[in-house]
Amino acid sequence: MQKITLKPGREKIVRQGHPWLFSGALKTRPAAEPGTMVIVESASGEACALAFYHPESDIALRILTTNANAAADTDFWRARMQEAIALRKTCMPPATDAYRLINAEGDGFPGLIADLYAGTLVLSISTAGMERLRGTVIGLFQELIGPDAVIERSEGRARSREGLAARNETVSGPEKTDSVLIMENGSRYLVDVYGGQKTGFFLDQRDNRALAGRLARGMHVLNCFSYTGGFSVSCLAGGAERVASVDLSAEANALAVKNLELNGFRADMHPVITANVFDYLRASEEQFDFVILDPPAFAKTARDVQRAARGYKDIHMQAMKRLKPGGLLASFSCSNFIDADLFSKIVRSAAEDTGLRFQVLKFLGPGADHPTLIGHPEGRYLKGILGRVVQG
Ligand code: SAH
To answer: To which CATH superfamily is domain 202-391 assigned?
Structure first.
């Protein structure tokens, strides 16, 4: 196996459990096929890890294991996948058949996301190293899960940065174009695994949807950035009196209407509105008991952070103004460039400018099927705050 040598002291990053090494940490950057598996050595020549190596990407090394003697063969990947499956067996709630089976670095598979929707497995590969292992991991999914269908949604920016073309196809199973029916905490949802956003559904919000449902009894709820109605259905299932959903995407809204009806809620009583949330909040006078804000990542790169922070602050101010005294706000950011601290500051600054007191009831994050390594804060992209506004 090819060896890559680090600059002095940089092996500490590996020891601390960060799974990425940027190009600046390497002594030299030799030519190699993107995604080649290599042995990582400290400046003094001590082997400290196995990694995927990319000669051009910013992230030059993606650590696979700190056991530099590991074989990293099919048995190695099988054991990792079995570990990932075992975790989900212990942590999934009842009446739930959709969850993330592999959460990239968090499960030891850099660049692999695999979401299981009832019997349909949707995978997404974003690194050259994982692309080389594509056949192995698909074979292991067949062996260990035996899904009815495997669909690949390998798209997006991370993938093109690794020099890989997009792939969106049925890998195995019937060629079908309709949606998949899943159950989450007893509610049913249609998921468009072929054309929907990401792999079709935002599984990372499962626990937060359940929490919102527990809080929403008797409330008038405004679900902003509602996508296919996840939070709307969970709030109604929890006894909300009325839920309004707002999203810019007509396709997502069409599915949200179907999801409401599928669970026995009338879309004429619980409006699904196609609008820009920024405009909608500004134009509306209505007051709510509970507002949910789950926008897409406003900051897609580090350079976007300032502009994104202004956008986040703006919707928080608008949302806070729509709350009745004592009203609840559940607000999220899924951008890994906005860390938990900055997110808290944004919410604080919105409360300050609206002259409201904002009580934090709970800090929120993804469910246990989205594990992240303690040494990899960049993996913790989803953060949320559940709070309550009380008069200043
Ligand atoms: N809460 C959802 C996921 C939200 S994903 C769930 O639990 O499933 C973010 C959503 O924001 C997407 O559906 C996208 O269409 C929508 N969106 C993006 N920009 C928007 C805007 N300016 N106004 C309204 N919706 C927007």
So the answer is: Vaccinia Virus protein VP39 (3.40.50.150)
